Amino acid sequence: MTEDEAAGGTGSDVSRRDYVKLGGAALAGLSFASLGGAVSGDDGGADAGAGEGDGSGNPLLIEDGTVVTVDPDYGILHDADVFVRDGRIELIGESVDAPAADVVDASDSIVVPGFVNAHLHTWESSVRGIAGDWTFQEYLVKMLGEISSHYRPEDAYLGNLFGAVQQLNAGTTTVLDWFHIANTPEHTDRAIDGLRDAGIRSLFAHGPPGDDSARWWENSSVTHPDDVRRLATERFPSDDGLRTLAMGIRGPDYSTDEVVASDIELARELGVPASMHVGSLGSGGVAKLDELGLLGDDLNYVHGNRLTDEEFRLIGESGGSVSTTPEVELQMGMGMPALGDALEAGAVPSVGVDVVSNVSDDMFTQTRMALQVQRGLANQPVVERGEQIQSVSPTVHRALEFATIEGARALGLADEIGSLTPGKRADITLIDTDDLNTAPVHDPVETVVLQSGIGNVDTVIVDGTVVKRNGLIHNPTAANHLDRLEASGRRILRRSDL
Ligand SMILES: [Zn+2]
């Protein structure tokens, strides 16, 4: 299959209108190109997803774009081509000669690395938009104490499939999926199937079950489910594919010292990173990890709002990463986003969505919010002194790094993704420059970070495979199962005692 066929087209001259004429379903702004793809099995055992992105198709030439590489050696290139072969970026330059390649015309596009969403509970896409007025305590009680127990394996599949497809639709090519409804091994397997069928690059952070929050989340004395060992050998036997394994551990805020030590030791035994929520209820969690001798560069700290300066110093010194999810942190009373603390401490800064039950799901919004809130925090002491600020920080260019290369670093994937660098995997997003909210483009980075949104995402490529083109997602599995997602979400909420 050629890249163009994979994209549902017949050649490089397929216009936007042709795609629209192909028909397809649309739900909540998620538009699909109808490819007539067959899906097997009523159990949702769909195996005809967007492709495994094995890069086995024709070479791909992204032509005449404004290429924002996020690689300091390449910078920003105008009227440049990106040549992709075997799923990798082979060459970036002017007038690349590749007669056999399928061509993506990027003359009206900004070409950026696909965004890295460093923290998402993908399964919650089934209950999108129900928790916009919830506090953090309400979330813990209702979401993790009630709703999560009503998910069946197929609900986990549909939530993950559609949650991940929407990430692609929004220009995000990699997601850390923090999965905490591992109620049975089947739930877990189907969630991984959902990521597979979406065709997204993912770090699957296997977490605890969602069927007993008191047991798993309240100073839990129960160690991480042993099923993760099966995943390591059966579902993730190697780390060279689109999907890799991590552990979503409860950490010091939600489990005993013994459990924290056991869980981190298990992650290290399996050779996978461990991600934990910490510092959104209070401080002391990272100090505890230090006391237990557990700090390391394989640990990812989510939120961190209430951690002390000393705890951030410990994270930075140990090479850990911090994932800020600004919109939900501001809403639910976790505290102000800790991006600035992470930067000051030299920790790897990354940005994520967290929960679409509450907040918007695109990295444009989250990155913009992380940037401007941090600027506001930095400006405020000056304002309170009655003075005028002399400079603005962080910069917009730095914010694009948070959403790309820094996110890749946080997930341990920076050697493969996060910038448009020859030799890296081809995870690429094209932003339209001729839309009313993006034209004219004077600084392409400002256009991407501050002016663009999901509606400007024209083309998305994961591992060399085109998954969105001309504004339309190409995923027959998802296109044929939209009604099942709606039914799943309604059933879960009907059964939940809210
Ligand atoms: Zn979270």
From TrEMBL:
Q: Give the matching SUPFAM superfamilies.
A: Composite domain of metallo-dependent hydrolases (SSF51338), Metallo-dependent hydrolases (SSF51556)
Q: Which organism is it from?
A: Candidatus Halobonum tyrrellensis G22
The UniProt entry, under InterPro entries, shows: Amidohydro-rel (IPR006680), Metal-dep_hydrolase_composite (IPR011059), Metal_Hydrolase (IPR032466), MTA/SAH_deaminase (IPR050287), TAT_signal (IPR006311)
Residue ranges of the Amidohydrolase-related domain? 110-467
Q: Which Gene3D superfamilies does this one have?
A: Metal-dependent hydrolases, Urease, subunit C, domain 1
Lineage start: Archaea, Methanobacteriati, Methanobacteriota, Stenosarchaea group, Halobacteria
Q: Which domain of life is it from?
A: Archaea
In this record, what's one Pfam family? Answer: Amidohydro_1
Stated name of the protein? Amidohydrolase-related domain-containing protein
Question: A GO molecular-function term, please?
Answer: hydrolase activity, acting on carbon-nitrogen (but not peptide) bonds
